[in-house]
Amino acid sequence: MSAPGGTLPQRDGLPGVLRLATEALKAAVVGAFALVVVTSFLQVVARYVFAWPFAWAEELVRLANIWCVLLAVGFGIAYSAHFRIGILSDMLPPRLRRVLDIVVQGLMALIALGMVVLGASFVQRTMMTSTPMLGIPHGIAYAAVPVGFAAALAVSLARLVAALRDREAR
After folding, report:
1. What are the tens digits of pLDDT across the range 107-119?
2. Which of 19, 50, 68, 78 is most buried, by the most CB atoms less than 10 A from its CB?
3. How many CB atoms lie within 10 A of CB 137?
């Protein structure tokens, strides 16, 4: 759960280096979103005020949007911002709640690992083709999948280790 002000809660189970990486991820998501907003605004002004649209703007917005969304996967896990059904876990006794947390973090780590492996393979296959206007290899856009899910994997593994340590301590 995120703390007021958009910072990570102090007892999130993340090591210091991972906390810093998560904050860097937050900055990258904000930067990508800002690029989407600014480029879209400039495109609207260029098209409707000056009747001179930028041919490359749509591609840049699409690429920045892809990176924004996929980087937010790891960022969202770090902040526990993803959708979950808490009614079940809230009804469980503390011991079973910890077991459920371990299972969920383990499953999230496995899914993230699969996305990293499959995403990296897809990036390799798509590096030979490029976008028509900017000439950026498609693999650059698709690299957001393994990068975003690598962040999700790191956070899930850190949370899994923290949950296992908490279980051993009791």
Report:
1. 999 999 999 999 9
2. 78
3. 16
